[in-house]
Amino acid sequence: MPHPYPIREIARQAGLSEATVDRVLNARGGVRASTVQEVHRAIADLHRQRSQVRLTGRTFFLDLVVDAPARFSAAVRAALESQLPLVRPATFRARFHLTEAPPAAELAATLDRIARRGSQGVVLKAPGHPLVVAAIERLAEAGIPVTTLVTDLPTSRRVAYVGLDNRAAGATAAYLLDRWLPDDTAVLVTRGTGSFRGEDDREMGFRATTRALRPGRRQVDLVDATGDDDVLRGLVRDALAADPDIAAVYSMYAAGGNAATVAAFADAGRSCRAFVAHDLDAENLALLREGRLSAVLHHDLALDLRRACHVVMQAHGALPGTPRSWHSGVQVVTPHNIPAELLSAR
Description:
Keywords: DNA-binding, Transcription, Transcription regulation
Pfam families: LacI, Peripla_BP_4
CATH topology of the largest domain: Rossmann fold
Mean pLDDT: 90
CATH class of the largest domain: Alpha Beta
Oligomer: single chain
InterPro entries: HTH_LacI, Lambda_DNA-bd_dom_sf, Peripla_BP_I, SBP_2_dom
Strand order of the largest sheet: 2-1-3-4-5-11
Domain HTH lacI-type: 7-57
Organism: Geodermatophilus pulveris
Helix content: 40-55%
Low-confidence stretches: none
Number of domains: 3
Largest sheet: 6 strands, parallel
């Protein structure tokens, strides 16, 4: 891959030795295929972050570790890269570790590799597995601050959380559905495996608010452990067949699944009176514009990532103040108030 970058810069971006990078670039052999891919990814990252590379001043290497469906990981990556030229007074360079539903041991191994290689900070979206919490402990011992993103790990040694106030989001969904639905309508609540605290918080906020506003309303919980749209479509069809009162949906997924749920209602010949979802990814934006979703609970992911960079700088004394958590406000987006920047990007 043609590039203008010194071997030292590529090695720092990839977290490899200069000798290894030199061997890859000159095709000398004796290097694993995965290492070759790491070098090429590092060069691609430098291409995307070239405006940051030109900046002078203190440089912070930030490792973004995300366990999420590919479309959400891509949104997080784009949000971070959009903020890198704006963060001051330091220069930030990002390294990416984006996976979908890996074993907890694999996530922990990724964090341990970062601890051994070195980093100025880790931004992490991961389930609250004991192996992950233990790996965060080791990062803290190595002096590497961890900021959790979107879903928190409050029992770990993370220095801060940035992202949506998930309990408030769940409460907002309950409030909206209460205003839109008759008393006897049951609500289907769809979510992932339950290993992410963010979804737990959304569910607690939704359940508590529904109980307070409409004690007699039934909540039908559907947990999809696969993340596969076809499987979810079948599960929703089964739920509809078993319960004729279901006529609304609250989807707690961070990304994906909602088109499958809409299709399942169509398969069953049933109407969905109200559908509240999370995050304006491409799929949800299309469903919202078509009127398939009633509202999307959205937050500024780019602002979350900028705050994560500020947390890292504070942790290293480059900005005044002590690192603290930041909870994003919940934006209720309907077909009539879609943010202009999202409309122009599609």
